[in-house]
Every structure is written in C-alpha cells, then in structure tokens.
Description:
The protein is mainly alpha-helical. The protein has helices at 7-13, 25-29, 37-53, 95-104, 108-120, 129-140, 145-157, 165-177, 181-192, 200-212, 216-228, 236-248, 252-264, 272-284, 288-300, 308-320, 326-333, 339-350, 358-367, 373-385.
Amino acid sequence: MKKHLFLSTFLTLVSFQANAQSADLASAIGPEETSSSQAYEEKKSDKQIADDRGAFSFLNFSFIKKPLKLFSNEPEKVEEEIIDDSPDKPKSETPLERATRLAEEGDAEKALTLGYMYLYGQDGVETDYQKAFHFYHLAAQKDNIVALNNLGSLYFNGIGTDVDYEKAAALFAHAAELGSDDAAVNLGFIYLSSDNSDYFEEALNLFEKAAKAGNNTAKFMLGYAYYKGFIVEQDFYQAVKLIRDASNAGFDEADYIFANIYANGNGIAKNYGNAIKHYRSAVSQGNVASMMELAQILAEGKMFPRNLIQAHILFNIASVYGAQNAAEYRDELEPALKMEELLEAQNAAESFKESPSELTQYIRQTFGPNIRLYIDRNLEKSTRKR
C-alpha cells in the first residue's frame, strides 16, 4: 500500500558526569528527563491536534491514527424491533450504505470519513484510492478544510488521480485561507522548493500564519529563517523564541539548532551545559549532525569534560548512518582507549536504537530528514548569484 511518500523525491525534480569515562550508552547519548510540564503538554498537544483533525500532510498518510467510524458522535437511537415479513418491505441500509448515501447527498463529515476508510481499508472496506479521492472531493466541495488539504495531498502524489501540482497547490492555498495551518505548511514547503525566489517570501508568510496557530513545524522553519537571515533580517531573539518552542515539542532538528545557539550564545546567554543537553536529546532521536557535533566536543574537551569513550561511541554510531569522516574520526580515537574500553564502546554503539518523537517521525516522513535544507539550499543559490 502506498502510504509513505517523501518530499526529497520531489525536490530532486522541481548531563554527562564531569569526569566519567563510562561507555554506558544511556549516559552517552540518552536525553535528560524534561522537567518542564509545558514541554510535555506541547508534545502531547501536537499529536492530539493531528489526531483530532484527522489531517495528514501531502507526503505522509500514516500519521492519522485515530480510528474513524461510520456513525456520528451522537448516540444511536434504539427502537423496538418490529418484525415484518412482508415481501414489499424495503431493504434496510447497512451503515456503509447509509454513510455513502448521506455523503452523496452532501454530508461532508460522512464523505470525509469514507475518504479515510477507503484510503486505508478501514472498518471492513478494502483500500480503493479512486473511491477515497471521490469522497474527499465531495467533502472538499463543502469547503471542509481537512478534505481540502487531503485532496491536495492526493493530487500532489497522484493517489486515486493523476498528479497535478497546480491543483494541489490551489487546494492547499484555499484550505490555508480557511484556517488550516497544515495546508499552510504544505504550501510553504512547495514554495521553498520552487526555483522562483519570488515565492520564498510568501512561504515565510505562510509559516508565520501557521506558527501563530501553534504549528511547531512552521515555528521551526520561521525561526530558522530568522537564525540564518533568510528573506528576513537575521534576528537571533526571534529565532530563539520560535526554535525553543519546536525543541520543547520534541523536534530533533530544533534541538540541534538550539544546542548550537547555546554553544555560541546567539540571542541567549552562552551555556555549554544546556548545549550538551540539547545535543543529547537530538542524538537519542537519531540526529546525525548532533552525533558528530557532540562527539567532536567530547573528543576535544574544550567545551565540556573530555570523554574519549563516549566520543568513540558517537562517531561509531554516526558512521553507521553514513556521516562523512565519522569512521575516520572513530578510528583515530582507538589507540587512546584500553582494549576493554574499546570493546565496551563498540558494544554500546551496536546496541543504539534511535527513539524519535512522534513530531520528529511525522516531519521526517512528510518533508524529509533535514528540513533545514529547504532554506540552506536557497541561501547557497543566492550566494552563488552574487
């Protein structure tokens, strides 16, 4: 079943203990417990919002987890059964038949539910992309913002219909105008992947709109634009506010950038301990850039107490992920380790399993493993033109 689609394909086209020398994997790369109840609520909120909307972004259909039913939330009326053996008795409708009839008659919620069911093969129906497209189309005609966004997703990916990027963009734009921050983010990424720089400012406007609605993907993208000075004037104060929110929500790339912000004191008091904390949080989710950065810090011992064992672990893990020069850096550390330390470090690296947050999984599956590239690539292009 075609459920996992990635934007990268489209883009190719259009606290460590101070003196510890333990190879314990948890202390090497495990995240510290978050003391902020607000951070917990934000993580929880992101998932709840996605579940409640039933919304998926245009390249990831697997994030919808809330099961939908044919029946509304209103309790069914139970009436006394009357036995009628008359041959002229009309055949009673099944729940599916009733939902289908109501959807065809203009019930947007029933159409939306049926679209979901046929897309996934839920509640006893088989997967049928054409029917999924049909029912999403019916609901979209009623200006249902979830249906508009989802129909745009189907057009974008050619699921149940032919690929049509223009129709997808138009549907995302309409849904965004009606208040869908998911659609605003989708359209913003489309604009950023365009070769036309005239669209970039509009992309940031869309991210700003979605960020105000609480969308953490949009907060990160807008914050990163301020951090890099992309389209907007570089403003570390604004970047800190926005990227902190995305970090608190559990996004690994936000943790990585926030760690860099702490390490360099950009718009916030320089704090190496907090930088390490955020690197560790990102590493636990499988963030390769954080693995490399943290390993270098521990190998050098300038920002934080030197720990060659943990540096070796991190370089070793990063090499498995294909990080450039990770294997070379790992091998350079081996002569400084005792044999028992080396073996312990190797075992620790081999046992590593990333634990990405739901938000991180969603963003990776929807927009790719490094959404900073949407801005970085455009910055590189503009630099070459000068």
